[in-house]
Amino acid sequence: MQETILHIDLTTGTARRERRPELFDRFLGGTTLGTELLWQYAPPEVDPLGEQSALIFVTGPFSSVFPVATKTVALFKSPLNGELGETHAGGRLAMALRDAAIDALVITGKSPSPTFLSIENHEVTFSSARTVWGQSALASERILREYAAPDGRKGSVVRIGPAGERLAPLACATVDGGRHFGRLGLGAVMGSKNLKAFLVSGTGGPPIIHRGEHRQVYDAIYDRVVASNDMKKYHDLGTAGNILPLNAIGGLPTRNFSQGFFEGAQALSGEAFAEHYLVQHMACAHCPCGCIHMAALREPFAPFHYRTTKIPYDYELIYALGTLLSLSSPPEVLSLVDVVEKEGWDAMGMGTALAWASEAFVSGVVGLRETEGLPLRFGDGGGYLQAMHRIRKGEGEFFRDLERGVAFCAAKYGGEAFAIHFGGVGAPGYLTGENALLTYLMGVRHSHLDDPGYGTDQKLLGKSLSLEEQVGAAVKDAQWRMVTNSLVTCLFARGVYDEEMVLAGLGALGLSWDGEKLKRMGEEALRRKYAYKIACGADPRRGKIPEKIFSGTTATGPVDRGRMELRRELYARMVGLPEEV
């Protein structure tokens, strides 16, 4: 790596380069390096939306060098829950940053007016974004791509929609053709800095020293991606292929986690989408898998006249804006996704907020007075579409509050008993059992991506594992993900990038690491993240489990309070959570 950090100060309109080889030697890159930069530039006491907060984007040594090392890691203090904010996105951004010889990008300060940054190599141009302020995330990308680099090079465009401009805690940032820094409110942090978008491009590329060895490792990884079953499902159906298997075992969250089986699952399955709506496969830069699936939504706007829109879909979108809301019509789900994409919302955050609102309405916690005459009922796609339009227009206090997330709304209006969130973050879409719930409760991002808890639950359907073995597997994988998220590889390729392959790749890049050193880095990195969370006042040992979870069932049976507390204690002990910072 070039070991280069580019600092941009929006307040002064200046940029500077900094080389920090000692940081890269110790932390590699990605999530591990990003956490250290977060401590330095957005410490726990900072206001997430204040001028002193920071946005940090980091690549890793494998980025743009090996297949499926496509992600960029973003670190920030979250305006959604006031603690560690971390989210990953694909697209072209990682490749563009490395082409520009930028290994980490740190953005601080606040521009006095809406701003667009154009970063070419190490040169930063500050331009007015007034003409795109208020434009959708999709329209902004089309307009700003006119600023693309010369010579036919494609830059990467990161931008926010109107939700980020409103500083909505559910606002995300969109990258290129429909990839997202999705959760925990990065879009609001950009909006608080008057940063509408930035474009990155470069004329260089990461240096390859040992070309022969690199080629050997590259070919081995490529073959595992394209010629084995490690990533076949992601190419064929994408994550939408999870709908029917999860439904079959009772792990598909339906109607605000009331049950794990959806009677309309067949219509929303990956197979049904592929047969009737799929029009394009896409891939992130430097990925041979092609897991991005685009559907065509055909809508009439006049007699015999139709508007056709290409919309990305995956399991999380179908869960959050489909099964969770009891919608079984793909066009209705795609219509909601389209609004989410344009507005720049986190889809899971919006879906869980609407699901809570629906249960709050049907249970009488809120009524027509709060919703200003609009009923919110499960299965009413038209009603949800109207609700989204009210949210984006700011029509009514209740609808303005919905884009602050389910935790905020439940605390303000009531309905805590059925508010499904962990650490203030709307729950991911796996109702598989206690291992998944432990992931959401204790994970650093409160995400299904923190460790394979939902996968462990599914393994329990076929064999028995002790509680210690189950929790130990979660901790071990969470620590290993610190390593792969530092390289930075896509988690879809977690079966490809095992320890042997990782060490081979590092060796081919001239980096002297061994298995024990990687293990120590993963363990220390995880504890460092928890130290940040605890310093923000978010100790996962005291996090609340949604009450509704105890009244239903999961794919592996009912959730037991005592067992969940034991899991939490075991996890904290195995990780070695710090008592204080």
What does this structure look like?
The chain has 581 residues and is α+β, with helices and mostly antiparallel strands. The protein is built from 23 helices and 17 strands. The strands form 4 sheets. The chain has a 6-stranded mixed beta sheet, sandwiched between helices. Strands 8-7-12-9-10-11 form a 6-stranded mixed beta sheet. A hairpin with a 2-residue loop joins strand 14 and strand 15. Helix 7 runs antiparallel to helix 21, helix 13 packs parallel to helix 17 and helix 18 packs across helix 23. It is globular, with a radius of gyration of 22 Å. The two termini are 32 Å apart. The mean pLDDT is 95.
Keywords:
alpha+beta, about 575 residues, 6-stranded mixed β-sheet, 23 helices
Beta strands, count: 17
Spans of 5+ residues with little confidence (pLDDT < 50)?
Answer: none
Largest sheet: 6 strands, mixed
Q: Give the neighbour order of strands across the main sheet.
A: 2-1-6-3-4-5
What value does the Rg take, in angstroms? 22 Å
* First-residue to last-residue Cα separation: 32 Å
Percent helix among the residues?
Answer: 25-40%
Strand content: 15-25%
What structural class do you assign from the helix and strand content?
alpha+beta
Mean pLDDT: 95
Characterize the overall form.
Answer: globular
Number of helices: 23
Short characterization:
The chain is α+β, with helices and mostly antiparallel strands. It is 40% helix and 16% strand.
